[in-house]
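During the reporting period, our protein records have gained a structure token line. A sample record is set out beneath this paragraph:
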Amino acid sequence: MGKLSKEELEKIKALAEGYKADMTAFLRAIVANPGESSDEAAHVATIKAEMEKVGFDEVKVDPQGNVMGFMGSGKTLIAFDGHIDTVGIGNIDNWNFDPYEGFEDDEEIGGRGVSDQLGGTVSAVYAAKIMKDLGLLNDKYRVMVVGTVQEEDCDGLCWEYIYHEDKIRPEFVVSSEPTDGGLYRGQRGRMEIRIDVKGVSCHGSAPDRGDNALYKMADILRDVRALNNNGDAESTDIRGLVKMLNPKYNDQWKEARFLGRGTVTASQIFFTSPSRCAVADSCAVSLDRRMTVGETWESCLEEIRQLPSVKKYGEDVVVSMYNYDRPSFTGVVYPIECYFPTWVLPEDHKVCTSAVAAYKDLFGDKRIGNAKTTPEREVRPLLDKWTFSTNGVSIMGRNGIPVIGFGPGAEAQAHAPNEITWKKDLVTCAAFYAALPAYYCD
């Protein structure tokens, strides 16, 4: 595996530190405008302008609205992905500062999206500039920095478009989602399930004349709860999801234990009834299902269909998967199932070993941060996984393109009021991104 010299690594770190003020200003400029899913136009314009300013060889926006910058002309394409949409701000009363105006001090930057996850795109843009400044780009690789849209609405939809419609397939992708100083090699998958139950309405004064859909759903939800909470003993009527950590039920149990067991929970409930004085004639619930290694959308739907209460009510119950078809800010509609596959990169994969080697040569064996964050980071394993979902569900989960994660900020800041990130992380990530391709391209 090729390595950079100690002198080259020090130059990368010094240049990344030198661009700290530029990266901070760039991040503040993006955050200054709202950029919720399907409304990312202002973010795209700001990022495109910055890519052009720092000298990318090619900058374009695809029909879906993903902004892409390319640097170099080598054979191997290495991509750096950062989604540029955010969730809403929630209750403004929970913020101590304006979520778009943000705030800045010597160590931190505040604002909606600074951790989740605009900071990653900022570091990647300046990493490409560092590669160009130091002459690291060669005939072996070309880098692509992409700011992707609609991730918060539908993780991976953007990469389905990039892969299938733009016809771009990188050798591997670095996800710049926040990793709290660690290298992340996987995540649990997820899917959105719907259960519909039919009933028959009647006057509430004589409920026996009808068939109450709410009572049927109550039975079903009790079984769903058991599926999440029960163990996996043979004597258990409803064997719990923890069974996937058991070699007896899952031949991929080792990686399942690494990512953690799957979960299921009711997230929404809907009903219809003629009035408050009548029996409900339909009920539906949404289930948030998190999947570990060895679970598929088919197996997750089937385990709901096999619950005793679902089988009891027969044809009155329909179990299905949601679909997503919301237009992007450009008006493109790209329908997809709400299924976001589990993925995990093996520890001995070349992308993983290259990332670990580059990190250790740059920064040592432990996670780093600033004076405030380092103590709580360095006690955690360097190689770890996300608890939430990322675009990796499409990149690797659906399309088999290897993904490694390293990004500024922290998962705990995602979707939270008073969201912050750290300037030190912007610098660290820019340096790592700039060094990694040389380690991979032997």
